[in-house]
Amino acid sequence: MDLHAALHDHFGFDRFRPGQEEAVRSAVAGHDTLVVMPTGAGKSLCYQLPALMRDDLTLVVSPLVSLMQDQVDGLRRIAPGRVALINAQQAMQTNDEALQAALDGRLRMLYVAPERFSSPGFVRALATVRIGLFVVDEAHCVSQWGHDFRPDYFRLADAARWLKAQAIIASTATATPQVATDIVERLGLQEPVRVATGFDRPNLSFGVVPVTTAAAKARQIAAALAEPGATPAIVYAGTRKGCAQTAEDLQRTLGRPVIAYHAGLARDARAEAQRRFMEGEVDVVVATNAFGMGVDKADVRTVVHETVPSSLEAYYQEAGRAGRDGAPAKALLFAAAKDKALHVFFIKRGESDDAQLQQVARRIGQAAADGRYDVPVTDLCADRDDEDRVKAIVGALARAGVVQPVPAPVDRVRGRILAPFDQRALNA
Ligand code: ADP
Ligand code: MG
To answer: Residues 115, 137: contact at Cβ < 8 Å?
Structure first.
């Protein structure tokens, strides 16, 4: 089979990028495949091209609606009538039509939000279709060691098995061995073909700026962004409050519009903020880590972190949004001593016998940053079966003011995450 011809026919590209051809070959042949490549490397093509080359249905699961929407919009131009999307943001009728198209065999690819697979009716309906590839994009979300754990991802392996998918294709930009092992185990990949490429970003330069006071930091960030060629820029803030404040400060200092983006904003406001930044109407966005996956703006010249992020992995992902076009770009980290204290606190907690509490706290932080306050805390705990343990964790979190326990049936210990959430509450 001529993969190059297929690449050109479907996408109009002249050559594969590193790793793509091997991944495509594996998926076309129906082998379980694990694709680990940096953001922007072209992971989507590794399953989109095989899906278009095959004659069965490929399911694609991805954690974010915006990610799926972008991909589907792009594919609809390439393969009209062959690609559809099912998620909670669409009208029910649109979802029904998408499912019907899949059942009728009209589709090659169906993008599905992960929570759909908890609906037995949905899975049962799909089971009548011949499923070729079951794609789990951003597969690190299945791992509790990843920075972006999603409880919904737990169900995907069962769904894929139940639907008798020929192969599972997992892709991620998270390169740690622990996460890879977790993905293979939790998704039940069978002797997967592993495709990994390098993570070096030679066009990025990294700088760490020590700061002492908030005022000095604000001044220095503004100065960095006022330099010629410093924008478009993303400024990552540690909290929503910090995000709104910094956006306001920068707007005043720079004398032009600066937008804030965080999960506390209404969906429309978020979409509008993202659009204005993507289309170049504004050249600086201040955001929490909610502004992340799915942000694919090639010409970002600077990524600023105004505090030290929670992990090296998170830092790599966020800083890596700079310079995707290959031209020189900067990643600047503004670090204050108290940032370190916060992380030392979490690390110590991790080293103590309460590693699990720390882990749950992280996940809660992530859920809150994403605006998901109604996540049952039980879902965030690893050993859900141990009810006493879960109760103890919820109790500790409640005492720290992070969650508010809510009444629930005795077999479900639930907690409601309090908004607004500030991880520092745990430090008190
Ligand atoms: P990832 O998921 O790895 O972050 P994407 O799949 O979103 O990356 O791809 C990033 C960009 O690279 C997209 O705009 C895509 O069209 C482009 N791209 C992917 N493969 C190729 C290729 N072989 N030739 C040219 N452009 C490509
Ligand atoms: Mg991707």
So the answer is: no
Position in ligand 1 atom list of the atom nearest CA 16: 23
Identify which of 98-102, 206-210, 370-374, 391-395 has the greatest average pLDDT: 98-102
Distance separating the N- and C-terminal Cα atoms of the chain: 62
**426 burial level (CB within 10 Å; 0-12, 13-18, 19+):** buried
CA of 389 relative to ligand 2 center, distance in Å: 36
ipTM over 0.95: yes
How far is the centre of ligand 2, averaged over its atoms, from the C-alpha of 208 (Å)? 28
Residues 146/140, Cβ–Cβ less than 8 Å: yes
What is the DSSP track for 313-375? HHHHHHHTTS-TTSS-EEEEEEE-HHHHHHHHHHHHHHHSTTHHHHHHHHHHHHHHHTT-TT-
- Tell me the two tokens of residue 49: 């091209």
Report yes or no: 415 and 394 within 8 Å, Cβ to Cβ.
yes
Rounded distance, CA 231 to CA 234, Å? Answer: 8
Residue 230 reports pLDDT greater than 70: yes
Reading the block at residue 41, the tokens are 């490397």
Phi-psi region of 172 (alpha: psi -120 to 50; beta: other; left: phi over 0): beta
Atom of ligand 1 nearest to the CA of 71: 7
Number of H-type helices and E-type strands within the chain: 16, 15
Ligand sitting nearest the alpha carbon of 70: 1
Q: Examine the pLDDT at 57 and tell me if it is beyond 50.
A: yes
Residue 39 alpha carbon to ligand 1 centre in Å: 9
Among candidate residues 165, 168, 84, 170, the one with its CA nearest the CA of residue 130: 165
* Dihedrals phi, psi of 171, to nearest 5 degrees: -135, 145
Encoding tokens for residue 50? 């095989």
Instruction: Please count the other Cβ atoms lying within 10 Å of the Cβ belonging to residue 121.
Output: 7
Let me know: does 252 contact 258? Beta carbons within 8 Å: no
- Name beta bridge partners: 406: 414
Q: Name residues whose C-beta falls within 8 Å of residue 228's C-beta, 6 or more positions apart in sequence.
A: none
pTM for the complete prediction? 0.69
- For ligand 1, pick from 35, 45, 71, 77 the residue to mutate: most ligand atoms within 8 Å of CB: 45
Query: What would the two tokens of residue 39 be?
Result: 């953001």
- Cβ–ligand 1 distance for 39 under 6 Å, the answer yes
Q: Whose CA is nearest to atom 12 of ligand 1?
A: 42
